[in-house]
Structures are given as C-alpha cells and as structure tokens.
Amino acid sequence: MTAKHRIIQVGSYAGSPTANERLARDYDVVELWKYPDRKAALAEHGKGIDVLVTSASFGCTADMIEALPDLKAICSWGVGYETIDVQAALRRGVQVSNTPDVLTDCVADLAWGLMLAAARRIAYGDRFVRAGGWGQVHGSIPLGARVSGKKLGIVGLGRIGQAIAKRGAGFDMDVRYHSRNKRDDVPYAYEGSLVDLAAWADFLVVATVGGPGTHHLISRQVLEALGPKGTIINIARGPVIDEAALVQALQEGKLGNAALDVFEHEPKVPDALKANDNVVLLPHIGSATYETRRDMEDLMLQNLEAYLRTGKVVTPVSA
C-alpha cells in the first residue's frame, strides 16, 4: 500500500463542504490547529513537509515558512492572501496559490444585495415587520432611495469589481472606478482621485484587495465626500475602511448609509454599527454559497494535486 503524501493544514475548513474530509482521505495531514503549541508542532513534524494548506483566515507567517525547511508550495482556500507572507515565500522559492475567479459572481451578487438592502431599507423593514410595527403605528418605515439610474463608484476594478460594474448596466447606472492604475480594457470612466470619486458617487462599493497597501484607504475624508445621501458598501476587507471614522460619520449624519460584509476587527462589530438603522450588517458571507464554496475547495485541491504531479500550482500568486 502506497503511503499518503504528508502535508500541513493550518486550520479547519469549517466553511467548505467537504475539504477536511477530502484532505484527510487523500493525504497524511498534520492538523496544526489541534496543537496547543504550534511552534513545537512545526519543529516536530515540519521536516519533509513540502506543502502547506491554509486560507486568508488562518494565514501563513514568515516564521511558519522558516520553520518548514522543505516547504515548496502554499495552497490557500479563498481569493485573499494578505495574511500569507507572500514575499517571504517567494524569497524561499515557495509557490503560493489562491482560488480566484470561482467566487467572483457570488461576491458581486452580494455587493448588489447589500446595495439594494441599504437603499430600500430591506433589513430595517424586515425588523419592523417581525417586531409587529406594521399596522400598530401610523405610516410605515422611512422612505428609501432608488438605485436605478444612480451613480456607482467602484474602488478596485479587478475581477470582482468588474463583475459589480457589469451588473450596474442592468440598473442603468453611470459607473466610474478608482484603482492604482487606469485600465484601457474597460468601458468605465477612471477617476484618479478617490475623494473625487466619492463626491461624485451615490453608491461607493469597496472591492479592492486587503493588506497594508489599502489599510484605511477609505478615510474620514472619503466618507465625508460621499456625504449624507451616500452609501458605502464593503465586500473586500474590513481594514480597508477606517471603521472609527465610519462610525463617527454615520453618527454625525455626514454619511447616509453603510452596508458591510466585512469589518476591521472580525468577528467583533462595533455596537454603534449594530444599533444604527442606516447600517446593514452581514457576517463575511461573500462567497458563502454551496456552489462557490465547493468550487473554491476544488480549486485549492487542484493546486495541491498539480504541484505534487508537475511541480507547479495552477493559480499562482505572484506578489
């Protein structure tokens, strides 16, 4: 009987239908999250391990990479990789892969769900009906805002940003975007100033990458430029928005609405956001559909299998 290839799994894939089961079936898995002392576990089991599997939630630090002298590939479940020290990996010649594309449509769909929920006060209305407010008081919930025909600003025009922009055409929206560089392959207007984009937009969707380069990119100035009738939607990473500035702008009426799937200190969400009826909150579920989670799982495993078969991952992260 052929021995199973040994790998390290940093954390349990609770959000994936069968990833843990498939990994355990096909590989000899060192389940790192079960060890109270990770450093000792890496020292004991790390020699000879050439593949590590992880996700943006679990990450992979430079110290972990250093503790695995034979590591050659890091296969991550999910599109984000800001918690993986990619530079440290590349310096060691370690390939890093993620699972792009397969979650694009579901995350873009959720961005639109959040936009509509904020504009039309859907979450507020749901709470109003459940609490018995309908019929017990004169009138109904406060008026919402129309989405069709409005101005849509997108921060970050990668795969997900483009999918969000494409959906805007169905709502007859004027779409502009801001990113580090202007693109020549898209039909949308580029705005070099993020503050100017916010001042122009009715809805501003954050779809950029996370990490140090975009930390607090959505600043107090940007939020106040969006203004008391504007709505911010975030399906990217929580720290891209200065959360303290967001809370203050909402409380002071300098920003109209916020619809958020991600937060700066997950899973902690400020009480001020929970208590604000102009805020829609979701628990980081952008990719949380049966179809997308299975596709992410499949691609993560394809990267692992491809490395072991050919020495190359399928969807490498370059930097």
Automatic annotation (TrEMBL):
Domain D-isomer specific 2-hydroxyacid dehydrogenase catalytic: 22-317
SUPFAM superfamilies for this protein: Formate/glycerate dehydrogenase catalytic domain-like, NAD(P)-binding Rossmann-fold domains
Superkingdom field: Bacteria
CDD domains reported in the protein's UniProt record: HPPR (cd12156)
This protein's UniProt keywords: NAD, NADP, Oxidoreductase
GO cellular component, one term: cytosol
Domain D-isomer specific 2-hydroxyacid dehydrogenase NAD-binding: 113-286
Sample GO molecular function, one term: hydroxypyruvate reductase [NAD(P)H] activity
Keyword NADP: yes
PROSITE patterns, A to Z: D_2_HYDROXYACID_DH_1 (PS00065)
Homology family: Belongs to the D-isomer specific 2-hydroxyacid dehydrogenase family.
Protein name: Hydroxyacid dehydrogenase
